[in-house]
User: Which sequence fits this backbone?
């Protein structure tokens, strides 16, 4: 989705929220374009769920404003916002069939209009033929599809997703994530998804908003957040980052380099002649599938470097106490001016 000239559709201005004297949100401002898919990413307790609850209307902010198409909806109750919501635990009615769960919010519509909408959503979400089943007769992935269809039934202005894939196993999570993205693209609905899963955020979103301690640390497209994290926290939370602070590298200014960008080789005259190269000792090597994660103690005896080394590049895995040449390529280093 091209957001270069996007006009603000949903806007948060300086949202704050405090619980028992503790700031859950410390002045969050954010604008979304119509049709944009945004993920709110961060560790537990960073404020992302509180932000989602304020968007939904379940909570009101202590200060700040929320605008939808220029209208201040900060104090509107949830039922008047027309926002769809999908929860981590599905929140389906166990005594209602798939069809009745999806159509729950359509009770005021004419029967034919409601049934046509339900049929359309059954097809859209791949649930056709399951409409007479009850939630307990469905798999986790199918239940989440029902929850998604129910949230879309009323043609909401915004779709809110609270960790919708976290209760599923890895294979189903990946498949349903791609299906969620397809549905979002087909419907064009503005979507905000909360997650703590970095890969999920990068794979699905037009834009990732990274939070910590109740504030936005960095926001941008997934490629930018991965390639150019603004702080050590951002670098380490999105992917895996070494933060190195040693006098012989960038005059001691903290620098970052991703595990996969570190070059590890058997010590040789050629290898040791490369810039930013040190001798180190392998402390641990773990097979991670297609690569080995290698922990190395450099010969200053204080700096530890982690490297993800492709299996295909090694004749044999590194063993504990092996001496290696470790290169931190200058063009891959990030230098931070703030902690």
Assistant:
């Amino acid at each position: 989705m091209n957001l270069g000239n996007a006009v603000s559709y949903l806007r948060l201005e300086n949202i704050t929220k405090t619980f028992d004297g503790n700031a859950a949100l410390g002045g969050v401002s954010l604008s979304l374009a119509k049709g944009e898919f945004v993920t709110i990413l961060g560790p537990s307790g960073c404020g992302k769920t509180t932000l989602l609850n304020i968007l939904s209307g379940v909570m009101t902010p202590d200060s700040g404003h929320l605008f939808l198409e220029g209208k201040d909806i900060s104090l509107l109750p949830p039922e008047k916002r027309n926002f769809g919501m999908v929860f981590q635990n599905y929140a389906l009615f166990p005594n209602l069939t798939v069809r009745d769960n999806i159509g729950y919010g359509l009770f005021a519509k004419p029967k034919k209009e409601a049934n046509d909408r339900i049929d359309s959503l059954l097809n859209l979400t791949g649930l056709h033929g399951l409409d007479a089943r009850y939630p307990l007769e469905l798999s986790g992935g199918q239940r989440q599809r029902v929850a998604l269809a129910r949230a879309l039934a009323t043609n909401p202005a915004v779709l809110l997703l609270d960790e919708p894939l976290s209760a599923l196993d890895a294979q189903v999570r990946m498949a349903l994530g791609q299906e969620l993205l397809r549905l979002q693209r087909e419907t064009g609905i503005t979507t905000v998804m909360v997650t703590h899963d970095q890969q999920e955020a990068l794979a699905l979103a037009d834009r990732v908003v990274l939070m910590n301690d109740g504030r936005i640390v960095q926001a941008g497209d997934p490629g930018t957040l991965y390639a150019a994290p603004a702080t050590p926290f951002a670098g380490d939370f999105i992917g895996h980052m070494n933060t190195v602070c040693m006098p012989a590298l960038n005059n001691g200014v903290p620098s970052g380099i991703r595990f996969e960008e570190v070059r590890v080789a058997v010590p040789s005259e050629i290898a040791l002649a490369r810039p930013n190269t040190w001798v180190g000792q392998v402390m641990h090597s773990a097979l991670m599938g297609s690569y080995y994660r290698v922990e190395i103690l450099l010969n200053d005896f204080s700096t530890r470097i982690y490297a993800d080394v492709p299996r295909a590049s090694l004749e044999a895995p590194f063993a504990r106490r092996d001496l290696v040449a470790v290169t931190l390529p200058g063009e891959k280093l990030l230098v931070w001016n703030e902690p």
